[in-house]
Amino acid sequence: MTTFSYITFLATLTIFILTSTVRSCPASDRAALLAFKAALHEPYLGIFNSWTGTDCCHNWYGVSCDMETKRVADINLRGESEDPIFQKAGRSGYMTGSISPSICKLERLSSLTISDWKGISGPIPACITSLPFLRILDLIGNRISGEIPADIGRLERMTVLNIADNLITGRIPRSLTNLSSLMHLDLRNNRIWGPLPLDFGRLRMLSRALLSRNYISGTIPDSISKIYRLADLDLSLNKLSGEIPASLGKMAVLATLNLDSNKLSGKIPDSLFNSAIGNLNLSKNTFQGYLPDVFGPRSYFTVLDLSYNNFWGPIPKSLSQASFIGHLDLSHNRLCGRIPAGPPFDHLEASSFAYNACLCGKPLGACH
């Protein structure tokens, strides 16, 4: 080989090596992923079998990289998935272990989904709040414990925080209301206690707030009504007390309000019955007094559940003026008097009116 040919060969080889290096993920990202993998045990599907070779951006199951920087941007590992690897095995996934803090070394991480594995335990790594590009954190359906990181509010880009169906304890951090881009918050079915932050309404981009099945206490913050995009609010099965803020009935797009199974009391605001809310569940609280006779053409309910309270007096006649009521449950109260005739009462079953003081008329027994 001539000197010229040798120099040309070396130059070509150098360019190839440099190009290959640029196209593959950095060694630091690869090392972080392998340390993350080492803390987990998945015995049935072999999803980590593809995590081999030097390029973690290419054919590593559940890993995606940024096209320009070649840094790891997304980790998407779902234990219940339609992926062929699950269909071939004929089963959903089960994984044990914990989430290694090494995940925090993936400095460009935008999305972290490790959901529905049923057996992953341990805490959410506190260092996760140091990932400036993190938009999605989805850890639903595991056995993750500990508290929500206190400085979660540092994640200014976060749009989805889903840690439902785990064993999370502690209070909702005050800093959570700093998540000005948050659109979906799901904390259901954990062991979270203490009050909702009074400035919850700072989450102006929020469209869904799902916090049922916890031990949340205190009152419902009036500031929630400032979240003009909020369509779904579920605070059921907690320990909330006090009255419902009347401002909730004035929210433009709030369609579902579930407050059942709490310790709420006082008068139900009239505004709730003539609002955008179409699914209203206030059952199993300690409301009392007459039901407001304020229903009208703007009242449209797929579900209206007021059961298991202490309402007395007659059923409001204005209920028959509602434009639609699909399911109505007034059972287990102290209501008395004749059930109004006509819609919606003519399509409801006796169970909708059972266990009251002295209701009568169809679909119950005749009035005497």
Automatic annotation (TrEMBL):
GO cellular component, one term: membrane
Keyword Repeat: yes
Domain of life from the UniProt record: Eukaryota
Family statement drawn from the similarity comment of this UniProt entry: Belongs to the polygalacturonase-inhibiting protein family.
Species in which this protein is naturally found: Populus deltoides (Eastern poplar)
Principal localisation: membrane
Record's signal peptide: 1-24
Locations listed in the record: Membrane; Secreted, Cell wall
Domain Leucine-rich repeat-containing N-terminal plant-type positions: 27-66
Membrane-traversing stretches: none
Keywords from the named record: Cell wall, Leucine-rich repeat, Membrane, Repeat, Secreted, Signal
Name of protein: Leucine-rich repeat-containing N-terminal plant-type domain-containing protein
